[in-house]
DNA sequence: TGGGTTTTGCAAGCTAGCGGACAAATAGCT
DNA sequence: AGCTATTTGTCCGCTAGCTTGCAAAACCCA
């Protein structure tokens, strides 16, 4: 019964659509499953055996701590996203943890080595997975070039637009986003200081572009972003 | 005979080490081969069928042109590197070209679709390739976090160190790099203005850290970087 | 309901580094 | 050798956005 649950959690991810019933069963045997509540911190990498994680429910942020102890947001992971050692190579230097942003989350995970075996036995999955990693790479490249050539205001606009497209609920050209990020989080994502982010958000609000509060962000007209 | 040449060009790339003789022959049938000289510009993507390229000899830079016509260096490709649609998904929006930096280059290429077939038939290659893409991604992530948290001077140091490790010829703690980049190129790679790059390089030279000219860069003591 | 914690708002000085301008040096070409 | 194009060196004004510092507002939970 519990195994069945895990089965379905994996089954409905698009990446695993191509797998046979047996293959998923196999992966399920070694699947871990975990729930956590808002604010909890989940450590991975480093100490533990390398794993791939699949976020089934909720949102988390991946935070990296550098040599000097500074924390920076590496990624925001949403329902359905894979995270962890996506490159299939364990890098021990990186010191990261995940923090739960939504009320609660459900995460499944499997060992990197087992996942590799699965890829070897399923060329189609391997190809899909490669494209998936490629897509992740393209995203990062895009953030990188934005950081180089666009100012903070533009980066904020682009981020809001992207966020709205990924998670927003539209009614006409107005989009409502459930806001589970603090202004500090947003600032880190668009690579600016908290103060600048605050200032820009207020500016957008007084220009009538958005309506902002701690619960939700409303983009009045998505076409203006 | 010409086919044999192409065979060897592919054969000695570490990614293709696991392939059987027959597999490579197969890939060779559809392999393109091309030579070019310094300063030449090679267009790819967009107009053409999507391809993966393998630089067999020399150096090139990948330059992207954005909507406003600004050019920016996306990547420096060296002997043995793959480039092109590495994510295996053709993106038409991107407008890029390659410019030859070394005296001459040799490039082989194969169609994306043929490469995909090959991956499907060779799970081991697929896995290696995924790791290779993952590694590329890790590099970009690293540049990104450098850009966020390090100043121009530090980024220049890190870049020189990295360059030296990849291509430099060491004698003791001194490393000599063949310099095929202009200061403008270097500036773009470390994401700063040409003026700042010039100033920083001269500063490092007068501090005795490096010795710079258009032909070569000598890092006096790699441990100081 | 009240006290502590986290988040947001606002002001002002400061600085890294951009960008324009121009001259000198070097490379490339015929 | 001479001419042109490219690259490098330098100076300097300007500004986006970082930092420091503090206060108000919202949230959390016992």
TrEMBL record, chains A, B:
Any one cellular component term from GO for this entry? cytosol
Q: What InterPro entries does the entry give?
A: cNMP-bd_dom (IPR000595), cNMP-bd_dom_sf (IPR018490), Env_Response_Regulators (IPR050397), HTH_CRP (IPR012318), RmlC-like_jellyroll (IPR014710), WH-like_DNA-bd_sf (IPR036388), WH_DNA-bd_sf (IPR036390)
Write out the GO MF terms.
DNA binding; DNA-binding transcription factor activity
Task: Write the signal peptide boundaries.
Answer: none
Q: What is this protein called?
A: Crp/Fnr family transcriptional regulator
Q: Which organism is it from?
A: Flavobacterium muglaense
Record-annotated HTH crp-type domain positions: 150-223
CDD domains associated with the record: CAP_ED
Alphabetized Pfam families for the sequence: cNMP_binding, HTH_Crp_2
Keywords of the record, alphabetical order, are: DNA-binding, Transcription, Transcription regulation
Domain Cyclic nucleotide-binding residue range list: 15-125
